[in-house]
Amino acid sequence: MGTVLRTIRRPFARMGVRDRLLLAVLATVAVALVTMTVVFNLVLTTTLTRDANARLQKLGQDEAKLVAVSGDGVSVPQSTGVMTDGGTQVWVSVKGQTVSGPTVDPDIAAAVQSLVGTMGKYVDVPGHDVRLFSTGLFYNDNAIGTIVTGVSMAPIYRTQRVTLVATAAFTALLLIIVGFAGRWALGAAFRPVSQMTVEAEDWSTADLDRRFDLGEPHDEVTQLAHTLDGLLDRLAASLRREQRFSAEVSHQLRTPVAKIKAEAELALRRPRDPEYYQEALGSVLYSADQMARTVEALLAAAQDEGSLARGKADVWQVLADVISSIGVLAEENGVEVRVQPPARDLRVGVERAIAVQILQPVVENACRFAQAEVLLGAGRNGKEVYFLVEDDGPGVAEDERERIFEPGVRGTAAAGERNAVRGAGLGLSLARRLARAASGDVEVDSGRSGARFKVRLPAAV
Predict the structure, then answer these.
(1) What is the pTM of this model?
(2) I need a labelling partner for 48 at 20 to 30 A (CA). Which of 137, 183, 216, 402 fits?
(3) Residue 122: CB partners within 8 Å, gap ≥ 6?
(4) End-to-end alpha-carbon separation of the chain, Å?
(5) Residue 47 is assigned to a structural domain of this protein
């Protein structure tokens, strides 16, 4: 039995949801229609049979009233002719002898004779579509004979056959109509699902902004699409964070890697004293430590973005780390980086590595666009510590002061011959993102001869 059930379930399980629903609907409708057809025909048969029986009884009662019984004998109206389709006939038998009745087929006559002496009995004559009924004939409360009434059942049987065929045909036709209508309705209901499936198969990892977009949810399918769109939004945001993190790590590691490469190339250019190699290795080790701190800071920023305003760091140490990290870049661009000492000791309310990662991209950007000089400064304004980064480059156009902080966007100054292939447009975006995550910000305006960036961070309490 279990094997049979599994054999039946296997093809059903392999059917699509739409086909299974259609099959379930058709099966339910078929059971309902067949049940209604059977019940209707049973009710019709019962009603017609009951009407025929009532007709036979009434005919017997009317005939009994016409029979005149007296002490001299019985006077019975004579029945003539044959039983027509739907017609009736009456036989009267007194003391076992038929005294009145039509001439009929021998089978019917034999059935009539079998009812003589009985009362309230029905007999159907096989092959002749005739039903007979026996009624007693009384005189002074004594039974003296039998009245047998008969009726042709052919019209009733014909009505039953026609009704059965008609209801069966109607059931089949209605089932076909329900099948087509159900298939159309289910097709229309599942069409968005099919569309979603086709669209999802065409999407790639580069299609981060594509959505099903079926509008406001108003049924189960659109609610599913709305939920999946939300899931895709979260997945796209996560993927963008991963891509941004990879790009930022690559961007921030370029400077220490370039410094390590420069130190190694310079050390290998010709034989050196042991003291020189020791200094070179120390510089390489410092750059490697800087790379490690950069990766750790970016990982911390990626994991705790929005809550970076914690820890303390000395502003002078932050400036020293930034100047050390951009030394190779400043030398390549022939730019002198000068620091204006702050009026007093300052402490910023973020960790030292985070503060460096915020300030370093801004200083690197200044070094790329400066003509000869970059000036760094720091100060405090209430509960904020600010860093100033000024260069003597071409400056920032008024309509680009916000756009240059978007990922991958470079200002028109980057189109110059000197900066045409430099930078990826990620540094300023990273700086602003980290600064805002630490309850600060990065802004830019025009300086006296170039661009003037202001990095605001919370002061240490």
Answers:
(1) 0.51
(2) 137
(3) 53, 56, 131, 132, 133
(4) 79
(5) no
